[in-house]
Amino acid sequence: MQTIKLNNEITCPVIGLGTFMLSPKDAQNSTREALKMGYRLIDTANAYVNERAVGRGIKESGINRKEVFLSTKLWPSEYENQDAVDETLERLGVDYVDLLYIHQPAGNWLQGYRHLEKALRDGNARSIGISNFEGIYIEELETKWETAPQFIQVEAHPYFTQKDLRFFCKFSTKLKIQAI
Questions:
Q1: Residue 180: pLDDT above 80?
Q2: 3-class secondary-structure state, position 20
Q3: The pTM is what?
Q4: Residues 125, 147: contact at Cβ < 8 Å?
Q5: What CA–CA distances, in Å, run from 122 to 4, 10, 86, 115?
Q6: pLDDT value at position 176?
Q7: Which of 39, 48, 96, 113 is flagged as catalytic?
Q8: Confidence tier at 170 by pLDDT (50, 70, 90)
Q9: What local confidence, expressed as pLDDT, does residue 173 receive?
Q10: How many separate domains does the chain show?
């Protein structure tokens, strides 16, 4: 599977399985079968209420955890929770995630980003990112981060190309865009 190199030298598959709107049963089955078929990127979130099922699907697949690029997102209600990252890892049944996002710039999103930076330092995340951010929020974050994010996950497709954001990320921040 084709991969890209992030700004921290970690590689990430370019195609993966997203689990938004999947019931726990469907998330578990889809994760297991996608991994068996050769997918190596699985994306979930606290808000999807299927992290436990995704973790079970990874285990059931028989694929070594180190071969799976697992990403998840903290929801704004978790940004001030000191235990949010540990609780996420427990739900997933893993010791670390490959990519940890804050889900959106709402609530105390800067505190949420601080949790990501701590998770990176502590080895609970191999890379960190932001989701659903626009340029104005990225510019604010740039003045405050200790560690630059590796990814921004946003809606992008032929009818909504995110041209300005893509330009901004390419020439200003070196962030990789993950389209959903």
A1: no
A2: coil
A3: 0.94
A4: no
A5: 24, 17, 11, 10
A6: 82
A7: 48
A8: confident
A9: 67
A10: 1
